[in-house]
Amino acid sequence: MLGMKLGSRPAGPPRGVTMAKKSGSLSALADKTGGGGRTGTGFPSFLPKEVEKIKDPFSRTLAQRIERLPVQIGSSESCIMSSVVKPLIQSETNPVVLLHCFDSSCLEWRLTYPLLEEAGLEAWAIDVLGWGFCDLETLPPCNVASKRYHLYQLWKSYIKRPMILVGPSLGAAVAIDFAVNYPEAVEKLVLISASVYAEGTGDLAKLPKIVAYALVSLLKSVPLRLYANILAFNGISLATNLDWTNVGRLHCLLPWWKDATINFMSSGGYNVIAQIKQVKQKALLICGEDDQIIRYKQVLRLHCELQDAIMRKLPDCGHLPHVEKPRSVAKLIADFSRGDCR
Known about the structure:
Layout: E1 20-21, H1 26-33, H2 57-65, E2 67-72, E3 78-85, E4 96-98, H3 113-118, E5 123-126, H4 144-159, E6 163-168, H5 170-181, E7 186-192, H6 209-219, H7 222-232, H8 238-248, H9 257-267, E8 282-288, H10 296-305, E9 309-314, H11 321-324, H12 326-337
Parallel strand pairs: 4-5, 4-6, 6-7, 7-8, 8-9
Antiparallel strand pairs: 1-3, 2-3, 3-5
Helix pairs in contact: 4-5, 6-9, 7-8
């Protein structure tokens, strides 16, 4: 992990990060290479062409809003073109920043994001380094320290205010790790179906390369993704499952996805168990009553171990409430961000 213990705050960028060179200011680079090119149907040209096959109108609308911003990492001459959905408004309350699950993208927020905007919130949907649609052609490290520092640099460059940081599933571990290391950047936490008690990637980190690549290839397969959706959602039709599978695996079609995923897996992954009690921010925990992936007793344990937390359980809901119950989740986030959720 780049010689850095998990939970220690980096004094500077992780070692060994080599990114595409930038020319001029960050904003100039964004104008030049940030995905300004569009297809005839309005999608950013950097998205895989398979985006055209997606039928879900909310996914298509959010995909059309994805752009890449240059995020400076390492020396003043290097940056990563990082995929985000930027807010259309700036609100009086602090911004809401939406992370995503393991091996996913900002398209996870296709249903909840417009409702947050409708509620008047300044909302960012961000792709975590190594997943989503960031430009990783130079194959930067995608371990925990690199993901953390990349998010910090993005926050420092563009958001610049304490945020309500929202993390679903493994994204909750990303959020906890970030909040402990950069408390000045986080006002509150929203942790959805939080997967925070896994001890990293375990034995997967020790797999021979050839086995790791075979396993990762399986991870993006349509049958496995279909089965994962059956586990994650509380009953969806086959047609919806097929379309949502196309949404969920779209980022896997980028040429560097496999290398970035193996880099994360072999680095050991997230183990935030020791950090949970260090969280100082107020937290809202959201879980689905019918979650088949995260057991309710884990949510109760997290509620007890956090210093200041409230919990909400949604009925008739599985592992991804922000996809299954977007109105309920949007209202909870909006109320919590304004201090009305008790």
